[in-house]
Design a protein that fits this description.
globular
Length: 352
């Protein structure tokens, strides 16, 4: 099967996306697929194009695309430096020949994370062009990306979630408490961010103002959320069915960007050491979130459980990480599905 693995881009999660893309690409090659790994923003310039057959030739075996693309390792990639490589980047998000190569593929495996990868824009474009892709559609992508909208739907569908208020950058005056409904400590996060970029714990008024300033670097709206002191869990859902629950226990601090992607920074246990009825409850809510947000194919839901055993859903991730430290592959492994089989299952669902 001809598969384009689409990664990179210009979001704050570019490095994670490239790492996911390399893992997926190598797994598909090992499974015998004719896979190509492309940076969605930088594209491919090396071929002379005369007809559609030229695009199909890109899938010929023998080239190591993972070696060519190079995975970025730094925590905060220089996005401005990446943008400088594309003088026409303001006019077209897609790099040279990206759309043409994607149209020549049987399916595109979306390894994108963050803005323009998970917010539905790429999905909407592909729908218009008849390009098949993995993950959910543009509507559900947009719903899940906006944490404020997601939480409104959680409440409507009876899914427990921490209390929260939204703060718009244009309305923020540089002072003021978190609000009558939210007391300190509280969580402050960019409303449409991912990978815990722009997320802070505020314990004082000074912390709160600094946290909002940090969140506003990534989005014009911030979500201020009730802090849940307890254990953190995650559940992958494939085709509407929940995988085993995984527990996430950072060695230091909370599950931020560093602890998510630095090997050894977090203890991850799957299946989680919790009573079967509690695991079943979390899985049930994960499946409810999947349906409430109109999700398709696969996703991953994050939860907290307080000392009293009450469960709270934090958010849904429509294109969860597929890096060496990512959670979804660990959950799939717990039911006997290796990484390559997981990738093929996701493709199978996309084509059906």
């Amino acid at each position: 099967m001809k598969v384009v693995v689409l990664a990179g881009g210009i979001s704050t999660e570019r490095d994670v996306s490239l790492s996911s893309g390399v893992m997926i690409y190598r797994a598909l090659k090992e499974k015998g697929h004719d896979a190509v790994l492309l940076d969605v923003y930088l594209g491919y310039r090396e071929a002379e194009w005369e007809n559609d057959a030229d695009a199909a030739e890109i899938f010929a075996p023998g080239r190591d695309w993972a070696k060519d693309i190079g995975a970025v390792s730094e925590e905060n990639p220089d996005i401005e430096q990446i943008k400088a490589l594309r003088p026409d980047g303001e006019k077209n998000f897609f790099g040279p020949n990206v759309i043409r190569i994607c149209q020549a593929a049987d399916v595109v495996f979306l390894a994108l994370h963050g803005e323009n990868g998970e917010n539905g824009k790429v999905q909407a474009c592909f729908d218009l062009m008849g390009i098949r892709y993995t993950g959910t559609d543009y509507v559900s992508s947009a719903l899940a990306m906006d944490k404020g909208l997601s939480k409104e739907l959680f409440v409507c569908h009876g899914i427990p979630t921490p209390k929260s208020v939204c703060v718009k950058k244009e309305d923020y005056k540089g002072h003021g408490e978190a609000g009558a409904e939210i007391s300190f400590p509280c969580i402050v996060k960019a409303c449409c961010g991912g990978s815990s970029v722009g997320v802070s714990i505020a314990k004082t008024e000074e912390d709160y103002e600094r946290a909002l300033e940090e969140a506003f670097k990534y989005d014009k709206e911030a979500l201020v959320e009730q802090f849940i002191d307890g254990r953190e869990f995650s559940v992958g859902v494939i085709d509407g069915k929940a995988l085993p629950v995984i527990e996430i226990a950072p060695i230091e601090g909370f599950y931020d960007y560093k602890n998510k992607y630095q090997p050894g920074a977090t203890v991850e246990t799957c299946p989680a050491h919790i009573p079967p009825e509690k695991a079943g409850e979390i899985q049930m809510y994960a499946e409810k979130v999947f349906h409430a947000l109109r999700l398709k194919n696969y996703a991953r839901m994050d939860f907290m459980m307080d000392g009293a055993g009450r469960v709270f859903c934090l958010e849904a991730n429509t294109l969860p990480g597929m890096t060496p430290t990512s959670l979804l592959p660990q959950e799939a492994a717990a039911v006997g599905m290796d990484f390559g089989q997981l990738c093929e299952k996701i493709i199978e669902n996309a084509l059906s």
